[in-house]
Structures are given as structure tokens and as C-alpha cells.
Amino acid sequence: MTEEIITVGLAERSYPIRIGSQNLAQLGFWCREAALGKQAALVTNPTIAALYLPQVRDSLVAAGFSVTVIEIPDGEQFKSAATLMTVYDRLIDAGLDRGAFIVALGGGVVGDIAGYAAATYLRGIPFVQVPTTLLAQVDSSVGGKTGINHPKGKNLIGAFYQPRLVVVDTSTLDTLPAREYACGLAEAVKYGIVLDADLFAFMEANAAGVLAKDKTCLQRVISTSCRTKASVVEKDEREGGVRAVLNYGHTLGHAVEALTGYRQFLHGEAVAIGMAQAARLSEARGLATTLDTERILQLLQDLNLPTQLPEFSRTAYAQALSHDKKKRDEGVNFVFNKGIGNFSINLVTDLKGLLQQCGVGE
Ligand SMILES: NC(=O)c1ccc[n+]([C@@H]2O[C@H](COP(=O)([O-])OP(=O)(O)OC[C@H]3O[C@@H](n4cnc5c(N)ncnc54)[C@H](O)[C@@H]3O)[C@@H](O)[C@H]2O)c1
Ligand SMILES: [Zn+2]
User: Fold this and answer.
1) Is it the case that residue 324 has pLDDT exceeding 80?
2) Given 215, 243, 314, 338, which residue is catalytic?
3) DSSP track, 88-156
4) Phi, psi of 149 (to 5 degrees)
5) Is the pTM of this model over 0.90?
6) What ligand has the least distance to the C-alpha of 135?
């Protein structure tokens, strides 16, 4: 299987994303090629360590790096200030100086917290992303958003801090549970709907292969998703404008997550529900056809993703929507799809009207 390299072009902060099916073994070599310092701090969790730590550590050691392993507990609830502090403690105890670098081996939780530790430890040391969930491979490891949650809200503390290198090994997905896998597919479908009609059509035509984690399909979906996200980030690194397109499906998705107490749905599932509604709303505004909407709903269903809004009142949804941190005082910036492969971002002030169009009762 060929390995692909996609560059995120951000002038002096540019970096490669290397995508292939046997990449973990090359990690050490590529870190050396990137001229990283001699000491590596490898942040991971026990679930991932049991599967991939030996291979990753061996690769780094064979390339001449010393490796300090820092395990954090597994779970979104540990993306916290308390966990971050234990990471700092370990970095200090290991005597890591500004010549050291951090390797994040895991999903979005490990990547976000390890990236934020790298952004802030000694005012910033380099870091490398080795994403092991599909969501992290197509989304969170690319683009430089790092951070932790606050008891008052998700991702409220953080920094834009780009990695030096992203190494994606598609074979790590073999062990990823099906629901987690589908969540990553939801983010890839998102890129297709609003930015890349060819990616959408590819997933539509190859849904069975994609679901079966066929390596050729995976390579295509991941590399196209990364290329698409990279091009958005290159235009708008700090989300002052067009990067907001990546919130497609997320406005309602976040409301669904909040209303269900973050228990009933995983993030990608809530986003799938949000995208199904966004598709209907786009059609209602004349931005897309009935056929576009049918194709979107069908693909989500083919990928085992939910599309039905859970039942809550219009008032409850309106409240959840206006708690969304992306909300501006005058309303919510909502991302619509224009057909498939294009988008339009519009300010929506009549939230209850929007919810009525989604079929949400009083
Ligand atoms: N920085 C960004 O731009 C960005 C974008 C999207 C999401 N996020 C963040 O990402 C987080 C979600 O990330 P996630 O969906 O990867 O969840 P996660 O990191 O919690 O991983 C999901 C589960 O899969 C396990 N796992 C990881 N890799 C595995 C593998 N190869 N085999 C078996 N199990 C494996 C993990 O231990 C965990 O239990 C959220 O905190 C979210 O806020 C960040
Ligand atoms: Zn998302």
C-alpha cells in the first residue's frame, strides 16, 4: 500500500500528514527527519498502550530517542485541568527541557490534552500527533486546535498550536470499536457534503468497503478528508471566517449532546443527527434538492449513523442552541449545504422557526 503525504501549508508552521497502513514502525525515523530533540514524552492511555505502545516506543528508541511514557486515564471526563497537571508533573519529573517533544498516541482526547501540554510546557515544545481513532485521523489531529474541558463547558480552555508532524497508520483502526469508527465516518461525510462532492460520491459508492475498513477505501477517505481540512485551515487557521464551515451539523449536534447529557450519543452520532437536519433545512431554504437530502440521509444510514432528532421540546432545543459557544448575541451562525459539495453560512435569528422546520414540537 502506498503511503501518502499531505502538507498543511502554514508558512513556517507547515507540517506533513503521513498516511499509510504500516506507518507506526516509521515514526522514529520521521521524528528524526523532522530534527526533533533527543527526548520524547509519549502521552497515551492504557487502552491504546496495550495495543500499540511497544511498537511505537521501539520505533522511537531505534531512532535514538529516549522515551518517557505518560499514561492518562481513558475517557472524555479526563480531558481536564487535573489530568493536564499530572502531565506537567511527569514532564518536570523526567527533567524534560525545551529540546524535548511530545508524541500524542491516541484519539482526540489524548491529542487535545497532549497538544495543549506541548503548547504550554516551557512556553511551548514541539509535538507530534499519532492519531488512532478515525475521528482523530480525519479531524482532530489536523488543524492545531488543542485544549481541555472546563466544568462549565467543553473545550473552553485551549490554544491554537500546530503539530510538527502527523503520522496516521490506518491499521490501528482494526481494533477500533464500530461505534467509534462510525463517528469518524460522520466527520468525513461532513467534508463531502459541504466541501467535496467527489468524496461524498466515493463514500456513497463504496459504503460497504468503507464499513468493512477496506484499506484502499480508508486510504482514500482519510487522505481526502485531511486534504480538505488542511485547505480550510490554510485559509483560516484561527476560525475567523471560513473554518466555521467545519461546524456543519455541529450546531444542532451540540444541542443533542447537551440535551442527552453527553450519554446517549457519541459526538459523531450527534453530528450525524445534526447533519440530517441541516440537510432538510437547506432543502427548505431552496439551497438543495430533495434528491440531495435523500442521498445524505441514505449515506448516513448506510454507515450505521443515526439521523432522528431525540424528542425534546422546542424551548429545550432553543435553549440548548443559544448555549452553544459559537452563538453570537443576535442569533446562531448556521451552516447550510448548497447542493452537495458546497455550503452557505447564514445568521439564523428565529431559532424556534428553524426548529419547527426540523419537526420539533412545541
Ligand atoms: N482538536 C480538534 O480539532 C478536535 C476536533 C474534533 C474533536 N476533538 C476532540 O476529540 C475528542 C474525541 O476524540 P475521539 O472520538 O478520538 O475519542 P477518544 O479519544 O475518547 O477515543 C475513543 C475511544 O477509543 C479508544 N481508542 C482509541 N484508539 C483506539 C484503537 N486504535 N483501538 C481501540 N480503541 C481505541 C480510546 O481509548 C477511547 O476509549 C473530544 O474531546 C473532542 O472535543 C478535537
Ligand atoms: Zn465534530
Assistant:
1) no
2) 243
3) HHHHHHTT--TT-EEEEEESHHHHHHHHHHHHHGGG---EEEEE-SHHIIIIITSS-EEEEEETTEEEE
4) -90, 160
5) yes
6) 1
* Residue 66 to residue 60: CA distance in whole angstroms: 8
Residues 133-190 have pLDDT tens digits of 999 999 999 999 999 999 998 999 999 999 999 999 999 999 999 999 999 999 999 9
Burial class (CB in 10 A: 0-12, 13-18, 19+), 68: middle
The 10s digit of each residue's pLDDT in 72-124 is 999 999 999 999 999 999 999 999 999 999 999 999 999 999 999 999 999 99
- The residue with cell 522514529 is 28
Identify whether the C-beta of residue 168 lies closer than 8 Å to the C-beta of residue 19.
yes
Residue carrying the nine cell digits 491529542: 111
pLDDT at 322: 83
Catalytic residue flag (residue 239) = yes
Strands annotated E in the chain: 4-8, 15-20, 39-44, 66-71, 101-106, 127-131, 145-150, 153-160, 165-169, 332-338, 342-348
Ligand 1 within 6 A of CB of 149: no
**Burial bucket for residue 284 (CB in 10 Å: 0-12, 13-18, 19+):** middle
Element (H, E) at 308: none
Q: Annotated catalytic, 267?
A: yes
Buried b / exposed e across 193-221, counting CB within 10 Å, b at 16+? bbbbeebbebbbebbebbbebebebbbbb
Q: Which ligand is nearest to the CA of 251?
A: 2
C-alpha cell at 196: 467535496
Q: 98 catalytic, yes or no?
A: no
Residues for the chain: how many in total? Answer: 362
Q: What pLDDT is attached to residue 331?
A: 85
Would you say 21 and 1 are in contact if contact means Cβ atoms under 8 Å apart?
yes
Cell numbers standing for residue 15 = 507540517
Q: Enumerate residues 6+ apart whose C-beta is below 8 A from 138.
A: 184, 187, 188, 191, 221, 222, 225, 226, 229
pLDDT in tens, 273-304: 999 999 999 999 999 999 999 999 999 999 99
